[in-house]
Design brief:
heterotetramer; A mainly alpha (363); B alpha+beta (376); C alpha/beta (155); D alpha+beta (161); C: 5-stranded mixed β-sheet; two-stranded parallel sheet; elongated; D: 161 residues; alpha+beta; 3 helices; 7 strands
């Protein structure tokens, strides 16, 4: 089993006890809220900056380039420089735009992605809130982001933006189904919707191995559908820079644009983290039955390293999609969902139910 | 409201959802404005607006001598500048009945094919990018750089090398020219499978281009669509075959024809043409004579005998024609450039009709328009 | 260039009797008066043995006393190229029939010619300025003076 | 049944075609091979332009501050867009006769199209291409240059042996 020294529960509980000893319980809750909020804000900003940097480096290597290399060693501070630039830029007010909604939209997008992060189990004992319907919550919250995109497209009084927003709406509503169904596969396997329970259930093997073919199938379907849901890769129709210049955020500038940009990358992290948690064992190390020595070595790697390692592998795959494929057309995109992904997913669910019922998976 | 009035309201022009693609738009590849009238995402009709970089080249050419106006033709289709130069040079040489050395003809043909490959490289890159495959851009540019390096070594400039002059070339090619051309052919043959795997065989790419913007042969001829776009509709319009100039009657090559007439056929024509150009290059480089000078003897001031001269060549985008009217002076009396992109542009409207915006972008990319070539 | 020249001459003398057929330096030239243009063009387009269905180039020449419209036509069947010339005597208000109903590509070339020469094309579906503003003048006419950007070329 | 088979073969073909595409980019990710990026300001020292590179028109001067330009004005006539202006003056030669000599050879780099006609037609090979390409300036007038250096004079023709 995973080593106790890497568990964050000792740290968190000691903070809790320390606070409890000096102040009233309601004040403790409030303080903890504030601490968690600040930690997540910092994490959010740093992660977003890092992901942008990572994407630029990955695509540069794929395209025989060097990528950012001016600010700092290997261009490490390039994204920070970009952020400072975006902060200093003018916020252009759009003529005849719906001012209130126009300003509200970036916040909706960023808050929803922020909320989804709260339920993710990052490491043993490091989870802000462990809901008993964790998957359901994450899915529900992350699909709220489309509301922000729709509002952004509608309120900015631009024809390109409106088309982009409408595309995005159609896309996310349909791909939501596939994402849900492929996640349902693991819910059936593990018999729980609580993220911590799902992770615990993978202590002796990840679901992608234990669930063999149907789980692998669900994983692939999830990857495709999730890429579509975050408006990325070959499915970036809402932005589609060669058709709609920049889609729904055409009219945004400065930090408001940065919010959309950041939210897109955080959403990528969220879907990768969900895939990690559900299919690849979350923060669980790689264990192979019977190889005791190997398993023990794996245990020495901290759980947080496992989690982020797996997440970034999936993030790399999503980036790999984007930098390889041409963009789909809107009708083909919907065809792919309704004619291919959804039927396959439904078949897979039936298959999994049988597998679980007969007990054909590795326990 | 009665039925008539309702109809009127629905069909009212002001109610149309009109978006202006361009003059600054990533997929119009220059200052072209497409006024697209939409119904949802479906294109109801599309009107191109041009003239944003009209420089009056035909008027300017009336005040330039035949040697001076060569540099103007560079600035039309800047991606195959050499071929445009050659058209004017051939027209003047034919008018004066000057025999240019065989070596010059070979060098010109090699440069033609190199320009064509470089131009198709850029088109391939940009077409991939139009469809959202961003990596193609860098792979295409990477390979194009090799061609440009050859140009730079011999002519000192990469894009607008006014290297032709009536009677021959400005100066001799670099001693390494032949070697580097051979190296490029070898290099690019190795890279062609990447092109195939990355885009040509891709299922998403097939879905985006197959059956999109179908133009039959009749339509292509009627609209005067030439070059790879015309040959994608089965219109045999390769000037190198139809009216051979230079040494093109001495080399063996295939005119690429695809009868389908959709965007994918146009794509295939260009990709196959790159390969065919490599075959031509191999033959030309082997046969190119070592001796023979680089220019015929020409008078310092060229005066064309009175008359009208028409010369056409196969540029990378289609048939490039020069029509010179001379009154026996050192300046042309009237000069007309028949540029391929000008004719090719206007089929975009009929082809895009009924498709959606993404199709419009795909068709526009597959026609391979160069805007300065349209505006002149 | 042209193998069946005799046949072509017969065809021309039968169907386009009002034209003068020159041998020309490069291509055979048919010179016709402006008002007969459309009939001649239609006859050439509908010539059974070698239909001149591909309009390569369309342009005008300003001869100071008259305009000449020049049409380069090619037959995609036999790859024969001819030049059709229509002479417009009236330089003040030049008018000529459009051929855009025969070759659609002519519609755009004619718009270009209208823009730069000021030749009006009768029955043209959409005759508007192409490159320049509406009040610019016709720059490819030899007597054009640019009042705004006066550039004198050193001749 | 046939359509079901076709449905699954379609999926199979599509996935394999996507995988071949991903293999190409994956291959370049693992072994990028040649990196095309030019580290421009850093590689100034090693950046060597081709000998024939057309950067600008220059007039070579020898160690005695002498050039070969006689001020004949052929380059000015041949320039298609008036990038060259020649201003001549009269100077006395050894015999005391007043002869024409170059005062200022003005070259407008901002208008030059690099067509090479001036260099090609110069009967004395007085001007040639310079390889400098860093012409970015904040003021356009700084692109107007006087090619002959101040105080320079015409080089005497060597007697051919």
């Amino acid at each position: 089993m995973i080593l106790e020294i890497y568990s964050f529960s000792t740290l968190t509980s000691s903070i809790d006890e320390g606070l409890n000893s000096v102040m009233a319980p309601w004040l403790v809750t409030l303080t903890e809220f504030v601490i968690v909020g600040i930690v997540f804000l910092l994490f959010y900003a740093l992660l977003g900056l890092f992901l942008v940097y990572l994407e630029r480096k990955v695509c540069a290597v794929i395209q025989n380039r060097i990528g950012p290399n001016r600010v700092g060693k290997w261009g490490m501070f390039q994204t920070i420089a970009d952020l400072i630039k975006l902060l200093m830029k003018e916020l252009i007010t759009i003529k005849n735009a719906d001012k209130f909604l126009f300003n509200l939209a970036p916040f909706i997008v960023i808050i929803t992605s922020f909320m989804a992060i709260a339920a993710l189990p990052f490491a043993k004992g490091l989870q802000a809130i462990d809901l008993n319907i964790g998957i359901f919550y994450v899915m529900a919250v992350s699909s709220l982001g489309v509301v922000g995109i729709l509002i952004a497209g509608w309120s900015s009084n631009s024809k390109y933006s409106l088309i982009g927003a409408m595309r995005s709406g159609a896309q996310i509503i349909s791909y939501e189904l596939s994402v849900g169904l492929s996640l349902l596969a693991i819910v059936i396997f593990s018999g729980s919707m609580q993220l911590s329970t799902i992770v615990e259930s993978q202590a002796d093997g990840w679901w992608i191995f234990k669930g063999h073919i149907p789980a692998l199938f669900a994983f692939v379907l999830y990857l495709i559908a999730a890429t579509a849901e975050i408006n990325r890769g070959p499915f970036d129709l809402a932005e589609a820079e060669s058709e709609l210049t920049a889609g729904f955020h055409t009219e945004y500038s400065g930090i408001k644009f940065a919010f959309f940009f950041l939210a897109e990358y955080i959403n990528m992290f969220i879907v990768a983290a969900i895939a990690t948690t559900l299919f690849l064992g979350g923060w669980m190390p790689l264990h192979i039955g019977g190889w005791e020595g190997f398993n023990q070595i794996m245990d020495y790697i901290p759980s947080i390293v496992w989690f982020f390692g797996k997440t970034f592998v999936i993030i790399y795959i999503i980036m790999w999609f984007k930098w390889t494929f041409p963009r789909l057309r809107i009708d083909q995109l919907l065809n792919l969902e309704w004619k291919y992904l959804l039927p396959l997913n439904l078949m897979n669910i039936v298959l999994i139910s049988f597998v679980v019922l007969i007990g054909l998976y590795f326990k | 409201m009665n039925e008539e009035a309702v109809k009127k309201v629905i069909l009212k022009e002001d109610e149309d959802y009109i978006i202006n693609m361009g003059p600054q738009h990533p997929s119009t590849h220059g200052v072209l404005r497409l006024e697209v009238c939409l119904n949802g995402e479906t294109v109801k009709h599309m009107t191109p607006h041009i003239g944003y970089i009209h420089r009056g080249m035909e008027k300017m050419a009336e005040f330039n001598t035949y040697k001076q106006l060569i540099h103007l033709t560079d600035r039309m289709d800047y991606l195959s500048a050499h071929i445009n130069n050659e058209a004017v040079c051939l027209a003047v040489e034919n008018a004066l009945e000057v025999e240019v050395p065989e070596r010059v003809q070979y060098i010109r043909a090699i440069l033609d094919e190199l320009s064509r490959v470089a131009s198709h490289h850029l088109w391939w890159s940009a077409f991939g990018m139009d469809l959202g495959a961003l990596t193609t851009f860098f792979y295409g540019m990477r390979d194009r750089e090799k061609v440009l390096a050859i140009f730079e070594e011999s002519f000192g400039s990469r894009l607008l090398h006014s290297f032709n002059t009536p009677g021959g070339l400005m100066h001799d090619v670099h001693p390494n020219f032949r070697k580097h051309t051979r190296e490029f052919v070898k290099y690019f043959r190795k890279k062609l499978p990447d092109y195939k795997n990355l885009l040509t065989d891709n299922i998403i790419f097939h879905n985006r281009t197959k059956g999109i913007g179908v133009m039959d042969k009749e339509m292509a001829i009627n609209y005067g669509i030439t070059g790879p776009s015309g040959r994608g509709s089965g219109f045999s319009c390769d000037v190198r075959k139809v009216a051979p100039y230079g040494v093109y009657d001495k080399v063996v090559f295939r005119e690429i024809l695809y009868p389908e007439g959709d965007s994918f056929a146009r794509y295939k024509v260009r990709v196959d043409e790159m390969q065919e150009s490599l075959n031509i290059l191999e033959q030309l480089v082997d046969d190119m004579p070592e001796e023979g000078g680089y220019t015929a003897k020409m008078k310092p001031v060229i005066k064309l005998p009175e008359g009208e001269y028409f010369q056409r060549v196969e540029a990378a985008r289609g048939e490039f024609g020069v029509f010179i009217v001379s009154k026996g002076e050192k300046y042309p009396y009237r000069i007309k450039f028949r540029s391929p992109s000008f004719s090719n542009l206007f089929v975009l409207g009929p082809l895009a009709k009924g498709g959606i915006i993404a199709d419009l972008v795909a068709i526009c990319g597959s026609l391979d328009l160069v805007i300065p070539d349209i505006d002149r | 260039m042209m193998e069946n020249r005799n046949e072509f001459e017969d065809f021309v003398s039968k169907n386009i009797p009002y034209c003068t057929l020159n041998q020309g330096a490069q291509y055979p030239e048919l010179i016709i008066p402006a008002e007969k243009l459309h009939a001649a063009a239609a006859a050439l387009k509908n010539y059974k043995e070698q239909p001149f269905d591909y309009l390569v180039s369309l342009t005008a020449i300003d001869h100071l006393d008259k305009f000449t419209m020049v049409y380069h036509l090619e037959s995609t069947l036999t790859r024969t190229m001819i030049v059709l010339k229509a002479v417009l005597e009236d330089r003040e208000e030049p008018q000529i029939d459009t051929v855009s109903d025969l070759w659609i590509t002519a519609e755009f070339h004619e718009r270009g010619v209208f823009d730069l020469f000021g030749i009006r094309f009768k029955n043209h579906p959409d005759l508007r300025r192409f490159f320049l503003e509406d009040d610019y003048g016709f720059p490819l006419r030899k007597d054009f003076k640019d009042d705004v950007n006066i550039i004198e070329y050193p001749n | 049944m046939n359509s079901v088979v076709r449905y699954f073969t379609d999926i199979y073909k599509g996935v394999t075609s996507l995988w071949t595409g991903m293999k190409v980019t994956g291959k370049y990710f693992i072994s990028p091979g040649e990196i095309v990026t030019e580290q421009y300001p850093e590689n100034r020292a090693t950046l060597k332009m081709e000998d024939r590179f057309k950067g600008e028109v220059i007039m070579p001067h020898d160690e005695n501050n002498q050039h070969k330009c006689t001020g004949c004005g052929i380059c000015e006539v041949n320039c298609p867009n008036g990038s060259i202006e020649i201003i001549t003056k009269k100077v006395p030669n050894e015999q005391g006769k007043m002869v024409r000599a170059i005062d200022k050879h003005i070259y407008h780099l901002s208008m030059c199209t690099f067509c090479e006609l001036c260099i090609k037609t110069c009967p004395f090979d007085a001007i040639t291409w310079g390889q400098d390409f860093e012409h970015a300036v904040f003021d356009r007038t700084r692109l107007t240059r006087v090619l002959n250096r101040p105080g320079s004079s015409l080089k005497k023709k060597e007697v051919k042996s």
